[in-house]
Amino acid sequence: MSAKATPALMANAIRALSMDAVEQAKSGHPGAPMGMAEMAVALWGRYLRHNPANPKWYDRDRFVLSNGHGSMLQYALLHLTGYDLPMQELKNFRQLGSKTAGHPEVGLTPGVETTTGPLGQGLGNAVGMALAEKLLAAEFNRPELPIINHHTYVFMGDGCLMEGISHEACALAGAWKLNKLIALYDDNGISIDGEVQPWFTDDTAKRFEAYQWNVIGPIDGHDVNAVDKAIEQAKKSATKPTLIICKTHIGKGSPNRVNTAKAHGEPLGTEEIALTRKELGWKHAPFEIPQDIYNAWDARENGARLEQAWDDLFAGYIKKYPLLVVELRRRMEGEVSKMVGQLAERIPRVYDQHAPAAATRKASQIALESFTAHMPELLGGSADLTGSNLTLTQNTKPMRVEKDGSMKMYDDAGEIFTDKSRTAISSKPGRHINYGVREFGMATVMNGVALHGGYIPYGGTFLTFSDYSRNAIRMAALMKIRVVHVFTHDSIGLGEDGPTHQSIEHVASLRLIPNLDVWRPCDVAECGAAWSTALQNSDRPTAMILSRQSVPYMKKDSNSDMIRGGYVLAEPSRVGMSWAAEAVIIATGSEVHLAMQAQELLAQRGIAVRVVSMPSTTVFDRQPQGYKQEVLPPEVPRIAVEMGVSDYWWKYGCSAVVGIDTFGESAPAPELFKHFGFTAENVADTVQTALGK
After folding, report:
1. pLDDT(1) > 60
2. Which position among 272, 439, 526, 582 bears the catalytic label?
3. Which phi and psi (to 5°) does residue 527 adopt?
């Protein structure tokens, strides 16, 4: 490092780039990057293990900017340290087609680990990343060969801690003893509405101590050496995650905006930027960085050295554990076995012969038994509803953390494994997580696990509680990551618990989220198709919608079209009709058997109908137009049947919909079905009326 490239100059380079980019874009948030600059110098300049030439290196440290509105901090760091993010991209901040979006987006910008912006969710993602690291290390590391051994760092602000998700996620991090999770809190006391003291009076240190975190500070967040010392201390923690409270000044360096809400979410303006340059002693033009500062920040040489050291370690691992290497690489690359599709195909062959009635939540568990037996990357869980969601299988033992912070391990027979020397290579940590009553926390953690790599997470709760998880589900869809939400108790069919728990609008609402697959299967065969599709979809999340009540198995002439989201389940010939269908009944989930019964009643009335099962409208909508018209002939009237709002179904050109457009009632399910018209007789009458017969 040259004499001029002091930590102060390195920090001021971040400030200059941030205020200049926001000014050029005429929008953005300069205050947070200017306030966190020294924190960034300490972490990125002295501790972060990463290689700009290979942003996907397995054992890199993960960095999350939870207060994602301060995105120019991360973009400046990525540019300065040598990632493929040229200065022109910083000049194009917040412009269409640039790699520097308003908030960091994973998959868009090299080096960005997760998409942040909705406050607190990045913190939840970081917890998931740290959990994935801990689990993978427990499964794959061997004595003297710690090939999975990295930290997860997260920057966060007051807003992240005000959001309730911070409570859910951080409580879990403490319970799981995620000692390699280090959070640096930008404690500047300012939010959009001004000084936070009137509405944010938490004792943050005591709060995190109660979560079983190690707490350091408050320290001066503008003292690089103080932050350095705090990180060094945090890395020594053996059983606890660490919170470092950094007292900072938002907009530091701006004479008239420092410590004010005006610094938060708007450009400083040309006059204030000129004054700030003078205050900082920054004499360079906009977007101009002296070479000595570039040299001080450049992480490419050190990053290559760090990765080479890991490569050398990994070479020894390859020699001793070649089978584990194949497995680790497969999972980190997100590859799934071709056996997944084969498993789904086996299920109908077994159950077509004899299948008792079962709730689709149970049918899902039956399918999961097959998948979890052959896919060690499946990491399940439930938000305190394991026995109701049926997410636990014989192959997924409970995930537990010992007092010393290590994971409880199990052998191939599912017995507790006690060989601490790890001489056997088949022991694994538990793969089913008890998240407690934390639906939102579960969803953000699952996102973080998926982003880290090595696992495919799935988690369960009641469908009505998907509202708690919704923004994290949306973020998963936006990030194009593979997570599976298991939503059971999907309708008035749950009965006596009443309208607070009976989902009406939820399925239709979830279908509105772009890039989210929604499946509502009718039996174990469709559950197998749904799980198979979800597990092979590497670029989209999935919501499984499952019933509490039992439904009969639907024998099928062919199973090949189930994965297309909608298919012809029964032609009129099934009930002895020799002419073409006069109408099509479209049904999903637990209502498919009603459609089949209605087909029989209509045959007795001389009306021929086709029954289409549509377990996934989202998948069906992506099919070629020719296939969709084959299943739903344009000239044939359509009647939809689903225990939910009717509005969604008009897009399919339906003549009538048997649905529910009010809240439910508290009563036994059979009474509710009659009350709301979910009987074969009412479906048949609706079809007959729609046909004018």
Report:
1. no
2. 439
3. -60, -40
